[in-house]
């Protein structure tokens, strides 16, 4: 099959990690007989430099016409890069929010997997993580605090800032359905995370999730308060299968989860809408401090490309081949600097990509 992929490298380490993911897709193409064609598009700081805004309407439209999007990372350093002198809705990250919303990508899947080979990079005690863990976030991505009304103004002589956390039942239902569908293909457990002891939006959240659960009698549903969840992720990560949560909680908890897997450089993510179209990007940021130095770990982006093969293109065997190749290279002892440990062989970004691609061919 021929696939048309919108390639958005973005800023910082974005271009170098996307390059390695393409290398790996190339290998998949030659082994399994597919072709991947790329349309290069700008988003984030590089788009501000070129067009004065982080994502133009034209770019959004072109991205939406592709079969799916492979994204690196966007953003720079606050206080260093001039992009951050612009108003908030013109900064690099605004491009990311605009593309998520504009393409209806409400379902953000973020796997948190402890690779056996990397257990030494995990900061938790051996007895907690023995045997590894494997859970996934279904994070709502186009609602909540990120997209509610916000403003900063003087009210009665006092500077006041307001952000609004709003969810309607349809938004909650569609992400809940996704979480239960995913759970059906896994260990059939959904933990819905909220702050229902305080927030109205959370009380509606848990009510709607409980309704959706009735359609999935095989799936065990639990509810957990977000503060407790933050604690449970470090206390006993093995208890989780699918964690379902709203936008902001998911943002915070997924960074925490990535840390307990050993490195943010390992975690992939998929942002999906109603159909098969999706946007695939590493869970980490653009790491401008190491950009262009061949230090970045491309594995999160490569595993995101594997998610693209699986979720958007239905190429399961191909996705397995990529994931197996990553495991094999780790087993062979190759590490980028972020996951380096004694006795292993340190490699750069490009060599890591070559090694993984080599296992696929
Ligand atoms: C993420 C990032 C984004 C988010 C930022 C860059 C807007 O942290 O994808 O987790 O908060 O969603
Ligand atoms: Mg985040």
Which helices and strands, and how do they pair?
Blueprint lengths: L1 E9 L3 H19 L2 E6 L4 H7 L5 H8 L3 E6 L18 H11 L4 E7 L12 H4 L4 E7 L9 E6 L2 E6 L5 H16 L4 E6 L5 H14 L6 E6 H10 L6 E4 L1 H14 L7 E5 L5 E5 L16 H14 L3 H16 L2 E2 L9 E2 L2 H12 L1
Parallel strand pairs: 1-2, 1-3, 3-12, 5-10, 8-9, 8-10, 13-14
Antiparallel strand pairs: 4-5, 4-11, 6-7, 11-12
Bound molecules: 3-isopropylmalic acid and magnesium ion (MG).
The site of magnesium ion has 2 residues, from helix 9.
Short description:
The chain has 361 residues and is of the alpha/beta class. The chain is 40% helix and 21% strand. It folds into two domains: 196 residues, Isopropylmalate Dehydrogenase, CATH 3.40.718.10; 138 residues, Isopropylmalate Dehydrogenase, CATH 3.40.718.
3D structure, described in words:
The chain has 361 residues and is α/β, with parallel strands linked by helices. The chain folds into two domains: 1-109 and 275-361, 3-Layer(aba) Sandwich (Isopropylmalate Dehydrogenase), CATH 3.40.718.10; 123-260, Isopropylmalate Dehydrogenase, CATH 3.40.718. 40% of the residues lie in helices and 21% in strands. The chain has twelve helices and 14 strands. It has a ten-stranded mixed sheet with strand order 2-1-3-12-11-4-5-10-8-9, sandwiched between helices. Strands 6-7 form a two-stranded antiparallel ribbon. Helix 6 packs across helix 7 and helix 8 packs parallel to helix 9. The protein is globular and about 60 Å long. Bound molecules: 3-isopropylmalic acid and magnesium ion (MG). 3-isopropylmalic acid binds next to helix 4.
